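Exercise: predict the structure of this protein bound to xanthosine-5'-monophosphate.
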Amino acid sequence: TWTMANVVEEQVERIREQVGEGRALCALSGGVDSAVAAALVQRAIGDRLTCVYVDHGLMREGETEQIERDFVAVTGVDLRVVDAREQFLGALAGVSDPEEKRKIIGREFIRVFEQAALDVVGDAKEHGEKVDFLVQGTLYPDVVESGGGSGTANIKSHHNVGGLPEDLQFTLVEPLRTLFKDEVREVGVQLGLPEAMVWRQPFPGPGLGIRIVGEVTQERLDILRKADAIVRAELTAAKLDREIWQCPVVLLADVRSVGVQGDGRTYGHPIVLRPVSSEDAMTADWTRLPYDVLAKISTRITNEVAEVNRVTLDVTSKPPGTIEWE
Ligand code: XMP
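Solution:
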């Protein structure tokens, strides 16, 4: 729209003023905010922005490719993908406790991103340049919540024995600070970002790691990823994406039940569908999905995902249930 075209122009101008001839770094998470922030900064300073995407192996089907391929194709952004899948799996081995998983995933993320940031800073140094700026997709509601402060940041490095804060001290660039979520989506559309990225529903940072109830393993991730892809495809086909706040798909990895599939008796895992309607995720109600959509999802999952022999529906509001199972 006209107003959003103005917002883009204005922000591009501001970013140019702030960054000047400097260089910037941005972590892409797969979410709308970091993608739109990065696309704006790329438009303003081009190759002087380097994006880093940490592939922790906990994303849903197609999401990493969407960033690596589609996002790069549209924006022309300079992207470094760090394949940290094995590192995350290793760190998560044997861990079932939800908060423990969150801690581990957060810690590993900082470790990997910090190393990638050091590499980017090091490469710039070799060319006699400095990376002074860190791009963040902070939105207006985040600014209000945190009291409006802004300025500098350094990537947390308390766990790092060697210590490296000096090189990783940045001035923040926050081009979305005045915008609400719906405006950010409009800016994304304006910038030509892929629909699926612009309209992405909330997805937790720890990803599928907190949607496997039990230990996270490669095999379990593969099972959940297949089931989740079916759910998302069917909800999209039924044009329900924008009516639902989000629909976690959960694998009860330590639960087994008896079923009969194909040639005979199976002893498989249940999948839980958790479609919710919400305004802000603080409270939520379970979404009354049409029966035919539920039936289609159930049939497809049990036909196409061999390890799953039961599909269940979570009919709990929040409170008392949280949206995620972990
Ligand atoms: P709950 O489960 O607390 O979720 O009702 C509320 C909203 O927050 C998301 N969520 C997370 N997001 N890291 C995130 O970035 C997390 O650890 C996390 N846990 C929950 C959840 O998807 C929902 O939108």
